[in-house]
Write a structure and sequence with these properties.
Layout (H helix, E strand, L loop, with lengths): L10 H132 L9 H12 L13 H6 L1 H6 L4
Helix pairs in contact: 1-2
């Protein structure tokens, strides 16, 4: 009956227990430490990789922030450059307009001066030519040669009357214009008239 009671240990049980304890000791002494080391190394490796990933994420976020800041700074700088270029272009344009206006005014002034000189020259030539024509006409009317130097006042009065530049003024010796006009043949009759 003793053998049939399972609660009472027998010899095989003790041998199995000793074998189990030996295997447990061997596993605990020789198998588990390398496994624990490998697991710890693996945990450390995973922990280091996670830390590196967190560090890389933080670094990427910082770099992204720096990139955004640099991009904003570049945009602001580009805006300043564009504004400066616009102001410079406006200044150049206004300077060019001012120089062009000055050049225009100078050219117009020079042209007006040249026109005035040409007009004066034309008037002088016309006066000289008219004097010659008046002398010709007087010589034909009188039938004698008239000395231009002697009758200069008469010639000037005739030219002034023809061109409409003024009313005839007093003649030689304070003689009124009407008297000189009534006596043209006497003025042309003699060399000392």
């Amino acid at each position: 009956m003793l053998a049939s009671n399972f609660l009472v240990p027998n010899g095989t049980f003790i041998a199995e227990l000793i074998a189990f304890l030996i295997v447990l000791f061997v596993i605990g002494k020789y198998v588990l430490p390398p496994l624990n080391r490998a697991m710890q190394e693996r945990q450390e490796k995973v922990r280091a990789e996670l830390a590196a990933a967190d560090e890389a994420r933080a670094s990427a976020a910082a770099e992204e922030e720096q990139r955004r800041a640099a991009l904003e700074e570049a945009r602001a700088r580009a805006g300043q450059i564009v504004e400066q270029a616009r102001r410079t272009a406006e200044q150049v344009r206004s300077d060019a307009e001012a120089r062009a206006q000055e050049e225009h005014d100078r050219i117009v002034s020079a042209a007006a001066h040249e026109i005035e000189l040409a007009r004066q020259h034309a008037v002088e030539q016309a006066t000289v030519r008219m004097g010659e024509v008046v002398l010709d006409v007087v010589e034909r009317v009188i039938g004698r040669e008239v000395d231009a130097q002697v009758h200069r006042d008469l010639i000037d009065q005739g030219i002034a009357a023809i061109t409409g530049q003024g009313t005839p003024g007093p003649r030689r010796n304070g003689e009124p214009a009407d008297a000189a006009d009534r006596q043209p043949s006497r003025a042309g009759a003699g060399p000392n008239a």
